[in-house]
Every structure is written in C-alpha cells, then in structure tokens.
Amino acid sequence: MFKLRHVGFTLIYGVGTYLFTAATFVLILWAFGISPTLTVILQATFIVGIGSAIGALSFIPNGAGITEISQGAMLLAIVAPANPELTIGVAAAAALMEGFFHKWLRVVVGLVVVIIWRDELFTTSVEGALAEAELEAKHA
C-alpha cells in the first residue's frame, strides 16, 4: 500500500484534482467580474485548499456548509480589499458555486468509475445481496 507507485499515483491524482478545483474557482470568480491576475489565481488556490481543510476538520460529511462559509469569509478577507466588486453576496454565490462543483464532480467521477469497473466492484455476491434487499423492500 505504501509503495512509491501507489503513493505517487495517489499524490498526482490529488494534486490534479486540487489544481482543477482551484482553476474552476478562478473561472467562477472571473465570471463574477474579478480579473484572473496571478495574485487572484494564487489567492483562489490558497482559499480552495484551506477551505477544504477546514471542511474536512469540521467532521461534517464532506464539510457541507463549513467549506462554503470559510471560503466566502476568506474571499471577503483576502480578495475583496483589492476587488471592490466582490461584495458579500458575490462572495457567497462564488463559494456556493465552487462547493456545488467540487462536490458534484466527485459524484460524476464516482459514477464513471462504477460504470467502467462495475464487474470488479459488484461481484455476483454483491448483486445477489442487492437483489435480496430489493425483494425485502418490496414486501415491506
């Protein structure tokens, strides 16, 4: 499990996901009229990382709500002073949009994984248990 090939792949996957989420957050901010300067890109990357960490440490599933609140607050504290168009409403909307994208991307990726590796993930014993549970639900 801790072999370099496993850790390396997981690290690359994690960094790629993080950078993709940060790039999406920059695009969301750009859509709200904040120019994607190098400073804004670095600030957005920082906000995504710290907001995700705060959400993970909150012990609420997927940091629901906590991540968005912390990202909105950091937008107002870090980005808003140099960008007056970033109001409380815009910060809240941008944080919510990033949260929806971030969370729903995981759902889409999970569905793709299930579709591609269905036979490996759902063996005949799992299929039988699912069919049995379905049958019990119909009779209940």
Outline:
The protein is mainly α and 140 residues long. It has helices at residues 4-31, 38-57, 66-79, 88-116, 118-121, 124-139.
Measured by DSSP, the beta-strand proportion falls in under 5%
The overall pLDDT average reads 90
Kindly state the percentage of residues in helix.
over 70%
Give the number of domains. Answer: 1
Q: Over all CA atoms, what is the radius of gyration?
A: 20 Å
> Low-confidence stretches at least 5 residues in length (pLDDT < 50)?
none
Q: What about the largest sheet?
A: none
Number of strands: 0
Distance separating the two termini: 43 Å
Any idea what the shape is? elongated
The run of helices and strands is HHHHHH
What would you say this structure looks like, in words?
It is a single chain. This protein has 140 residues and is mostly helical. It has one domain (4-112). Helix content is 79%, strand content 0%. The chain contains six helices and no strands. It has helices at 4-31, 38-57, 66-79, 88-116, 118-121, 124-139. The model has no long low-confidence stretch (mean pLDDT 90).
